[in-house]
Write a structure and sequence with these properties.
The protein is an alpha/beta fold. The protein has a single domain, classed as Alpha-Beta Barrel (TIM Barrel), CATH 3.20.20. Helix content is 41%, strand content 15%. The chain is built from nine helices and eight strands. Strands 1-2-3-4-5-6-7-8 form an eight-stranded parallel beta sheet. The termini are close together. The chain binds zinc ion (ZN). The site of zinc ion has 6 residues, from loops. The site of zinc ion (ZN) has 6 residues, from loops.
Length: 271
């Protein structure tokens, strides 16, 4: 089996995780910029993090022969300090030429505040000006449906945004249609306790079809499972889906979206 992990916060994971992912058939991992668990206090803190995402972590992954790509941004949780946000946004273009950078992400909303919306808009504008792919995080639980609508409305109001170049992540049963019906890609996140489970993810594929959808583990420093994507293949096979179905959802779909960035080239696809 081969698969792509399109959303993993590998700076928080161990080398054992890298080994297990490669053994399970992982052909590439993509790492969106993320909240550290605390607010970074300065532009230099972000600069160091972006260097980690574009220099150190790809080298660590390469020791396990795993291609590593990254996305850059401020996290929605870090949007309340507008001066810091503006300074970080001004610094991001320094890194857009790095060879493992796929685009701007994961941007989005957390509590759906006015400042989060403002910083989201600035990120979208930055992505469009630099012709970058966009990866969007949607809020948790009770804020998700409203937040998803705010995100879709904001993206639609920006004339430069091409929906096929945007993935809106962490969709659930009550938001996946809001995303797919407008032409965006949808990401389903497989978490042990929240977001989606393997059976719920396969239910959504059965209801919505398998186009423009990817699955990810969003593994980070919290309760999460870096092998959640390959484990979902087992749920698909249990329900009678063949290897071609599994390959399309876990490998070909993310490849199709990510290959819109010319840097995303898998030289030795497994399988
Ligand atoms: Zn994430």
């Amino acid at each position: 089996m081969r698969y792509i992990e399109p959303h993993g916060h590998m700076v928080s994971r161990t080398t054992d995780d890298y080994q297990a992912m490669v053994a399970a058939g992982c052909a590439a991992v993509c790492e969106p910029a993320f909240w550290a668990g605390y607010d970074r206090g300065s532009v230099e803190g972000f600069r160091d993090y972006f260097r980690q995402l574009t220099e150190y972590e790809p080298a660590r992954a390469a020791k396990f022969l795993l291609p590593h790509y990254s996305w850059l941004c401020l996290n929605p949780k870090e949007s309340e300090d507008l001066k810091l946000a503006a300074d970080v946004l001004a610094m991001i273009p320094e890194f857009l030429g790095k060879k493992n950078v796929l685009g701007i992400g994961e941007i989005g909303l957390n509590r759906n505040t006015r400042n989060e919306l403002k910083v989201l808009e600035l990120h979208v504008d930055l992505a469009v000006r630099h012709d970058q792919l966009i990866l969007v995080h949607t809020p948790h639980l009770e804020d998700k449906k409203k937040g998803t609508q705010l995100i879709v409305d904001l993206l639609r109001s920006h004339r430069g945004v091409k929906p096929g170049r945007v993935i809106i992540d962490h969709v659930e049963e009550h938001t996946i249609r809001q995303v797919l019906d407008q032409g965006y890609w949808a990401g389903i996140t497989l978490y042990p306790d929240s977001k989606s489970s393997p059976p719920r993810a396969v239910d959504m594929l059965e209801i919505c079809g398998r186009d423009r959808i990817w699955l990810n583990s969003a593994c980070d420093w919290g309760v999460s499972d870096p092998l959640a994507v390959p484990k979902t293949a087992l749920e698909m096979r249990r329900r009678g889906y063949d290897a071609e179905f599994v390959d399309q959802v876990l490998y070909q779909n993310p490849l199709r979206f990510l290959a819109q960035c010319p840097r995303f080239v898998l030289s030795q696809p497994a399988g």
